[in-house]
Design a protein that fits this description.
The protein has nine helices and seven strands, in the order αααβββββαααβααβα. The strands form two sheets. A five-stranded antiparallel β-sheet has the order 2-1-5-4-3. Strands 6-7 form a two-stranded antiparallel ribbon. Helix 5 packs antiparallel against helix 6. With 400 residues, the chain is of the alpha+beta class. Strand 1 and strand 2 form a beta hairpin.
Length: 400
């Protein structure tokens, strides 16, 4: 079950109008009813007092001459009052002098006493009102008259008042519903349309839609126009962002094409250099091998050492060419990573660089290196570049 705060704006306005109208009507009705009830009670007591005064004045002669029959004839005039149920004239000592009963079978409680200094007393009890009035003659009390009346008139008044209130309440609720429909067309419906527009924008990311305007220059009209202006600004920024995205994408494509072309040129160059180097290396390697086999025994040890270094240089150059080919293929295939002992690679690099170190005093400080997963040829080239640069750029020092 929805709570009131979850209701739609039209439903809230309808309920608020009905609640305000109903509450105001109920409060006004309660005030009028209390006022009418007070006036009715006051009027009933006043009428009974007047009737008691009239009966008492007309019964003085009967009291003076001790004529109860004449007093009863006077009391019989109360038949014209449909709500008077009982009336009785009592002597000062409390004995009944004459009486009147509309219903002969009914019984009534005794009369309430009159306080000293007062001529009249009344009491509402058991759906009835009882009034006792003192009858005086020449300033002396000669009797009291006791009258009881039902409150049927008050009950009829309450029933009629409730019927009127119910009718007016129903008409007020209908009027509140009608006013709510008018208010809904003026306030709620534009806000509902605005909320629906916001939902469409959020769901479809379509900033070209606009909320329909009301043509009014109130807060709702300002809200709708401000919302439409905000959508227009977002649409402009979204279009500018789309254009910037397209330009950026085009630039990325252009840069990618340039990079691919550069990579292709570099790859072609690498292939060309490596293939151009292989033929001379093969010739050097072949002739040095023939020279070693046919004339190795005739050479002195120094020449044999030089020939051996030539053959090692050819092998290293071959590996460098292979590594260069691998470097050119890095962008096309994955590296071949194997467990490699960096100490052995460093040892090979130092052996290859030994000819460059002859005649120099170099102090090597080599710590323990770990075994790593890498491409051995490329990592060897890294060490060769670093150490050859170190040897090259420290040649002016006595002790490197």
């Amino acid at each position: 079950m929805l709570r009131f705060r979850d209701y739609s704006i039209p439903k809230k306005l309808t309920w608020m109008n009905m609640l305000v109208s109903g509450t105001a009507l109920l409060l006004a009705s309660a005030g009028f009813f209390a006022y009418d009830l007070y006036n009715f009670r006051t009027g009933t007591v006043r009428d009974l007092g007047i009737q008691a005064q009239i009966i008492g004045s007309n019964s003085i002669s009967a009291l003076v001459f001790d004529d109860p029959l004449s007093a009863e004839n006077t009391l019989s005039a109360l038949q014209a009052a449909p709500h008077v149920m009982f009336a009785e004239i009592c002597t000062p000592d409390g004995h009944a002098f004459a009486g009147y009963r509309r219903d002969r079978s009914g019984s009534f409680p005794p009369a309430p006493p009159i306080p000293a200094g007062r001529a009249e007393v009344y009491r509402f009890q058991g759906g009835q009102v009882a009034l006792v009035r003192l009858i005086t003659f020449h300033g002396k009390p000669v009797a009291t008259i006791y009258i009881r009346s039902d409150l049927q008139a008050m009950n009829d008044l309450e029933r009629n008042f409730a019927l009127i209130v119910a009718t007016v309440f129903l008409m007020s609720l209908l009027a509140a519903v009608w006013m709510s429909s008018v208010t809904r067309r003026s306030i709620a419906e534009p806000i509902v349309r605005l909320a629906e527009t916001a939902r469409i924008v959020l769901a479809e990311k379509n900033y070209s839609v606009r909320a329909s305007t009301t043509g009014e220059h109130n807060e709702v009209g300002v809200l709708i126009s401000t919302f439409n202006e905000m959508l227009a600004q977002i649409q402009e920024r979204d279009a500018a962002l789309g254009e910037a995205h397209d330009r950026l994408e085009q630039q990325v494509q252009e840069r990618t094409a340039q990079l691919n072309a550069a990579n292709a040129d570099l790859e072609a160059f690498s292939y060309s250099v490596s293939h151009d180097l292989r033929a001379p290396l093969r010739h050097i390697g072949a002739f040095s091998h023939i020279l070693s086999e046919e004339y190795g025994s005739k050479m002195d040890p120094a020449a044999q050492e030089y020939l051996k270094r030539i053959q090692n240089g050819v092998k290293n150059m071959g590996r460098l060419v292979d590594d260069l080919l691998k470097m050119a293929q890095i962008g096309r295939k994955e590296l071949v990573c194997v467990a490699t002992d960096l100490n052995s690679i460093l040892k090979d690099v130092l052996a290859d660089l030994q000819p460059e170190c002859e005649g120099r005093q170099i102090d090597w400080h080599i710590g323990g290196l770990p075994s790593v997963e890498c491409d051995p040829g490329l990592v060897k080239q890294v060490f060769a570049n670093l150490i050859s640069n170190a040897v090259k750029y420290t040649r002016r020092r006595e002790i490197a």
